[in-house]
TrEMBL record:
This is Elongation factor Ts. One of its GO terms (cellular component) is cytoplasm. It is found in: Cytoplasm. Pfam families: EF_TS. It comes from Gracilimonas mengyeensis. The keyword Protein biosynthesis applies. Associates with the EF-Tu.GDP complex and induces the exchange of GDP to GTP. It remains bound to the aminoacyl-tRNA.EF-Tu.GTP complex up to the GTP hydrolysis stage on the ribosome. The keyword Oxidoreductase does not apply. Residues 81-84 are annotated as: Involved in Mg(2+) ion dislocation from EF-Tu. GO terms for molecular function: translation elongation factor activity. HAMAP family: EF_Ts.
Length: 277
């Protein structure tokens, strides 16, 4: 049957797919718009599978936080190129997924992917985006935090890095919270306190430090004591409350908070494009 230009344009407006793809889908569906949309979705799925081995390390990190600072969400959505990440449609869809996670109290990507929005699961919406844009697109991380204390979010310019910090109490000066969130962004701590550091990693650091000292000719007992000193420096570099405060190296983060009568940090989350959370 003959497919009019108006019908092709209508399908393109409905789906965002290319003109030729729309014309072909309408022809295969004998002019049935619902069937044509389904064909385009299937095409999107095929594109997604076809590009499954491609690297998707560009994209956006987005955050949303409640007015009372008691609930916050972080979302990482990935694509292949920065050009797509700057696309208005891509950004609107990313905001839609972030809001869906926030509004539905979703704290993992698997649950978000199964969520239905306006009749389509998030997985299907991603497949449609792939079919429309032609790049691999995936949601890599979803974080949701609820707190009886205070939550502060920070998104680094460019939306490639985002942080949520939970304070153990009422934080009256939000600037202090932003300072700590930027500390987490810049200095990549492993945990809030020493107790949060993986014991396997601690043992490995001790072993490395001890072996280095033994290789330098230090006696066993001296090497063991000196290794513990190196471990202290490791904690100062990788534990948030023990890190030197980036805006004043004369104090630790813990001392900075105490000097300003601010509650200590209870937890934090840091997402960066292309990194495991």
């Amino acid at each position: 049957m003959s497919i009019s230009a108006a019908d092709v344009k209508k399908l393109r407006d409905m789906t965002g797919a290319g003109m030729m793809d729309c014309k072909k889908a309408l022809s295969e569906a004998d002019g049935d718009f619902d069937a044509a949309v389904e064909l385009l979705r299937k095409k999107g799925q095929k594109v997604s599978e076809k590009r499954a081995d491609r690297e998707a390390n560009q994209g956006l990190i987005l955050s949303r936080i409640s007015d009372d600072k008691s609930k916050a969400a972080l979302l990482e959505i990935n694509c292949e190129t920065d050009f797509v990440a700057r696309n208005d449609d891509f950004q609107e869809d990313a905001e839609l997924f972030l809001n869906a996670a926030f509004d539905n109290d979703i704290d993992n990507k698997e649950e978000l992917l199964e969520l239905e929005l306006d009749g389509l699961t998030v997985t299907k919406r991603l497949e449609e985006m792939v079919g429309k844009i032609g790049e691999k697109i995936e949601i890599n991380n979803v974080v949701l935090v609820k707190s009886e204390g205070t939550l502060i979010d920070y998104i680094h310019p460019g939306n490639q890095l985002g942080v949520l910090v939970e304070f153990d109490g009422d934080l009256t000066n939000e600037d202090i919270g932003k300072d700590v969130a930027m500390q987490v962004a810049a200095m990549k701590p492993l945990s809030v306190t020493r107790d949060g550091v993986d014991s396997t990693l601690v043992e490995k650091e001790l072993e490395i430090a001890k072996d280095q000292l033994l290789n330098e000719g230090k006696p066993e007992h001296i090497a063991e004591q000196a290794a513990k000193g190196k471990l202290r420096r490791f904690y100062e570099e990788r534990v948030l409350l023990e890190q030197k405060f980036v805006k004043d190296n004369g104090v630790s983060v813990k001392e900075y908070l105490e000097q300003n009568d601010a509650p200590l940090v209870k937890s934090f989350h840091r997402l960066q494009l292309g990194e495991d959370s």
